[in-house]
Amino acid sequence: MNVNTTYPLELVCMDFLCLESCKGKYSNILIITDHYTKFAKAIPTRNQTARTTAEALFHNFIVNFGIPTRFHSDQGTNFESPVITELCSLLNIKKSHITPYHPQGNAGPERFNRTFLNMLGTLTSDEKTDWKKYVDWLVHAYNCTPHETTGVTPYQFLFGTKPKLPIDHIFNWPEDAQAKPAQEYVMDIQEQIVKTHELIQKQLDKSKDKQKSYYDRRAKPVRLEVGNQVLVKKLAFEGRHKIGDKYESHTYIILEQPRPDIPVFKIRSLSEDEKIRTLHRYHLLLLPTQEKVEDDKEDASGHSGSQTSKAVDKTDQIGDAQDVKVAEEEIEEDWELVEVRSSNDSFISDTP
């Protein structure tokens, strides 16, 4: 399911990234990404408490870039706390979250985390001991780099102007800059933003189609319905589990799909009186019914019977071909005898 946004700060996604502790006892980074423009912000923190999260959001993002329409995160206690709920209520911000153990629902920060870790990995050993000092530099470099999905830099997409980098001073850019009245400058920026958004929207549509085609190559749709029996993938482990069972031993039954357009189901165990669980389709494995098993057996037996008949027909054909070959060899031998006899008769008749 694709999440569609149409303007900046419509959907702001959040996640925490944990790293090795550095100077100042900082070991966490609050990652914030704008779903529409791909603009990112990283805020180092000492912990992941609700108060720390709320303060980082307000002082480092909201007062600098504006109030977003919606915050989106996982179901961590810091993001679902009364403190964040009160902050969203005061600023009239909507709040949504992903289903448990389904990070694909918050793909923006997850993808940025991988890129950002690669960037942090380029630091020297001494610099990594104080990685907090380089976070803003690296994030700014990311925001000033054209994004693969949109084709432009997140900085330009959000602010409407190209970022001015140190290399621009070397080449004295822009050379033809002219002073403009404030109103004319604002109108030029607005016009430039509209054109940029139109071009990017076309690029986004192409990127979505491309990503969908890649995903559909390996996707095998299996529709789940109310009443189906399923197995649930193990989501929590104790110790190592490389050769452990992938699914729980209990069988569950699907009770409800709250929204038909979202692959999230409510299930309950058949063997135990457990509470109702809400899980994503990704974590469920459909169990075949007895009728389905019997039908598959009939299809398999019919298929094997047809294969046997085909094998018999092929054997008959091979046998017929072998008989024809033997007959041809016998005919060739007979002709050789006839030719020998005829040659002997001619030799005898020519002798006086």
Give a short overview.
The protein is built from 9 helices and 10 strands. By secondary structure, it is α+β, with helices and mostly antiparallel strands. The chain folds into 3 domains: 143 residues, Ribonuclease H-like superfamily/Ribonuclease H (Nucleotidyltransferase, domain 5), CATH 3.30.420.10; 73 residues, no CATH class; 58 residues.
Global geometry: globular
* Quaternary assembly: single chain
| Overall number of structural domains | 3
> What structural category do the secondary elements indicate?
alpha+beta
* Biggest sheet descriptor: 5 strands, mixed
Low-confidence stretches: 333-352
Q: Report the strand count.
A: 10
Radius of gyration: 35 Å
The CATH architecture of the largest domain: 2-Layer Sandwich
Question: How many alpha or pi helices?
Answer: 9
Helix content: 40-55%
CATH C-level class of the largest domain:
Alpha Beta
Mean pLDDT: 80
Widest beta sheet: strand line-up: 3-2-1-4-5
Provide structural commentary:
The protein has helices spanning 50-65, 82-91, 107-120, 125-128, 135-143, 154-159, 166-170, 182-216, 290-350; strands spanning 12-18, 28-34, 40-45, 70-73, 94-97, 229-232, 252-256, 264-269, 277-280, 284-286. The protein is α+β, with helices and mostly antiparallel strands and 352 residues long. It has a 5-stranded mixed β-sheet, with helices on both faces. Strands 9-8-7-6-10 form a 5-stranded antiparallel β-sheet, with no helix packed on it. It folds into 3 domains: 1-143, Ribonuclease H-like superfamily/Ribonuclease H (Nucleotidyltransferase, domain 5, 2-Layer Sandwich), CATH 3.30.420.10; 147-219, no CATH class; 229-286.
